[in-house]
Design goal:
alpha+beta; 6-stranded antiparallel beta sheet; about 20% helix
Length: about 140
């Protein structure tokens, strides 16, 4: 079967984004303020995204906004080694079931930070920023 050039272009436009993850491209952190400073393990598979707000007082103004991206991966040791190499200045905390890397991105305001948590079968990348910084 041969497709007309216009149909082929439409097919590539529609299916192209589906092929990118298969090509080994690292997932994107949509909505991250400091995305350019947050490496994503290349073979990670995005599972879910969540977020919320921090308040100093109940019913008070929002003091910080957080967003987390959750990924699956193949080899925990490779993921830990990747982040050890990519985030050499991050604080590392090893616990029984997880390894946590935490750093303050360049240009961050007081209280803003990024954390990367590697668990047995999950990678969580979280960003905490001042309210209003995150684009919808």
């Amino acid at each position: 079967m041969q497709l007309a050039p216009s149909r082929l272009a439409v097919l590539i436009t529609l299916l192209g984004p589906l092929a990118l993850p298969a090509c080994g491209a690292a997932p994107k952190l949509d909505g991250a303020v400091y995305a350019a400073q947050i490496p994503v393990y290349p073979n990670a598979k995005l599972r879910d995204v969540g977020g919320g707000n921090y308040y100093e007082d109940i019913g008070g103004p929002i003091t910080f906004e957080s967003k987390s991206w959750f990924f699956g991966f193949d080899d925990r040791q490779q993921v830990v080694a990747f982040y050890q190499q990519q985030l050499p200045n991050a604080a590392r905390e090893d616990e029984e079931d997880e390894v946590r890397f935490k750093f303050t991105p360049t240009g961050a305001e007081d209280g803003e930070d990024v954390s990367v948590v590697v668990r047995k079968d999950e990678l969580q990348i979280s960003e905490v920023v001042k309210p209003g910084k995150r684009k919808a």
